[in-house]
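Supplementary material to the annual report.
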Amino acid sequence: MTDPRFAEIESHRPYLLRYALAQLRDGRLAEEAVQEALLAALESIASFGGKSTLRTWLTSILRFKVIDLQRRAVAERAQQPLHEEAEGGDETWLDELFDATGHWREAPQTWSDPGAALEQRRFWEAFERCLDRVPGAGGRVFFRREIVGEDTEAICKAEGITASNCWVILHRARLALRVCLEKSWFGRETAREG
Amino acid sequence: MKDEEPNCRAASKLLSIAYERRLSPDELAALQRHLDECLMCRNFDSQLKFLHNASQRYRTKD
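Predicted assembly:
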């Protein structure tokens, strides 16, 4: 019962929860999907051959649990499209980032050695914190587009929004992530190494 | 306003949208002219690439 991989599986729970939340848009359902997926993974850990990474294997199990729950929850609130919010249609939020002449209010800096960041555990903690702070539908749409790699078209359809609204939501999410990472990681270069 | 040169606000949006659809030759040319003169938007361009790469790494990370 003390397979060291149990703890390893558990360490992917935060990622899996984000994945499920991006798809299901409901915290309770997402928890349920992840719980079921982790149980299924523990039962079949012997069949994990290491051909993919553990995270990829766990995600493939979770994917089916999510589809299953989506089918069961079709009529529920979680499935309502978000077009009421019309988040993508309104671009006044850009005024916070750009002045009246369209220039950056805060200039994007040159990030030093971003490749090295990917090798540091603490960078990924910052990355996850920033992901969680992306406002509105942005976090969810960014996760599905950039992390899961789904087609924009499929995501827009699931969200019930037009393609151009989807692009604006993604743009906003990228801008928010950029600001967050620059503040919480790349801006502290000297402090961190000193 | 087709002939107007993009400012940072417009250029950054094009840089982001380039991940979702193919930019037109006109859009690409205008974007390139802006990038040639704007370090801030070149930085933003690099940061978008970084976000894209980091996201892909995050998907399979152990």
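The two ends of chain A are 44 Å apart (CA to CA).
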